[in-house]
Amino acid sequence: MTSMELKTALEEGRGISVSCNTIDRACAQADYTCKQLTRSALEANDQLKAAFVATVGNGEYTARQFIFVDETRINRITPCRHIGRSVLGSRACRRDYFVRGKSYSGIAAISLDGIRHFDAVPGAANGQLFNIFIENLLDTMNPWPQDNSVLVMDNASIHKTRGIRELVEARGCRLLYLPPYSPELNPIEEAFSTIKAHIRRRRNEVLAAMEASDAAFYDILWDIVFSVTPQMAAGCLDGPDDLRTYGEEGYVCIV
């Protein structure tokens, strides 16, 4: 809520009239600060989340067995920053692209070893391309219950193409699907945030490569993606303080 919304709520609910400045000071004294919201889906099913927690937390799994897979989209808007600096009282302005232009889909797999496998294609990824990605990823995996033997992914339609489970299990590996609308349970989202931060940092190089050719863009994209180290990957799996995800002893809890 904004200060004005809090002011209105106090007046209508408690009959108390104070200024917005007073509300701001009271919030600061109580250690309340403005921050970007962490959003969770209303469509998410808590029972399915609990079932997933029970499955992964049954003592069979450890963090080193998991490999997390997902896709992300990249286009000319991706390198754009949303925060800048300017002289007090003036706007922070920058000329940037408003049209996304050509888009790319990046498919990645991450474990405690870092980026296990990565591929990118122009446009949107489809089931056929995803199956090829999984086949190549499986070449780097081990049979259950060794390290890197369990694939974890969401319920996107291209992740559930015909034969995908048989493909995984034929290699002696396991496949787990996350509950619907639960991106916070996939640590690869943290890795994608890191990758896109690097893309913004190298904005001019990335945009120039996009304009030059697919090959030039792929060169710089691979360099950025594989800059995610095992230490960074471990940080992604630990999660923030209020969301413990996949620890060394397997799934811990969700707060």
TrEMBL record:
It holds the Pfam family DDE_3. InterPro entries: RNaseH-like_sf (IPR012337), RNaseH_sf (IPR036397), Tc1-like_DDE_dom (IPR038717), Transpos_IS630-like (IPR047655). Gene3D superfamilies: Ribonuclease H-like superfamily/Ribonuclease H. GO terms for molecular function: nucleic acid binding. Residues 66-203 form the Tc1-like transposase DDE domain. This is Tc1-like transposase DDE domain-containing protein. It comes from Thanatephorus cucumeris (strain AG1-IB / isolate 7/3/14) (Lettuce bottom rot fungus).
